[in-house]
Amino acid sequence: MIELSKVSKSFNSAVKAVDNIDLKVNNGEIFGFLGPNGAGKTTTIKMVTGILAPDNGSILIDGLDITKDPLKAKKQFGFVPDSPNMFLRLKGFEYLNFMSDIYDVPTKERKEKIEMLSNRFEMTKALGDQIQSYSHGMRQKIIIMGVLIHNPSVWIMDEPMTGLDPRAAFTLKEMMREHADKGNTVFFSTHVLDVAEKICDRVAVINKGKLLFCGKLGEMKAHFKVQGESLEKIFLDMTEHE
Amino acid sequence: MNKKLLILTMALMKNGFSLPKEKSKKIKQILLFVVLALSLLPMAYGIITFLRITYNGLATVGEEGVLLSLGIAISAFVIFFFGLFYTMNTFYFSDDVENLLPLPIKSSHILGAKFIIVTIFEYLTGCLIFLPILIVYGVKSGAGVLYYVYALLIFLTLPVIPIVLDAVLVMIIMRFTNLAKNKDAFRTISAVIAIIFGVGVSTMSQRFVLNQGAGQTQLGNNSLVAITSNIFPASKLGALGLINHGSPSGLVYTGLFIVVSLLGFYLFLLLGNKLYFKGVTGVSVSSSSKKQISSEQLSRKSIRSTVIKSYVLKELRILFRTPAFFINCILMNFIWPIIILIPLFTQPKSRNGIGAIIGLLQKEGITGMVFVAFFGAMLFVSSSNGITATSISREGENVFFNKYIPVSYKTQIMAKVIAGVIMGIVGMLSISIVAVIVLKLPLSLMALICVTSLLAILFSNFVGIIIDLFNPKLHWDNEQKAIKQNLNLLLSMAICVAFGGLTIFAVIKLNLNLIQVVVSLVAVYGLLDSLLYLFLKKIGSKMFSKIEY
Ligand SMILES: Nc1ncnc2c1ncn2[C@@H]1O[C@H](COP(=O)(O)OP(=O)(O)O)[C@@H](O)[C@H]1O
Ligand SMILES: [Mg+2]
Question: For the complex shown, is ipTM > 0.90?
Answer without folding.
Answer: yes
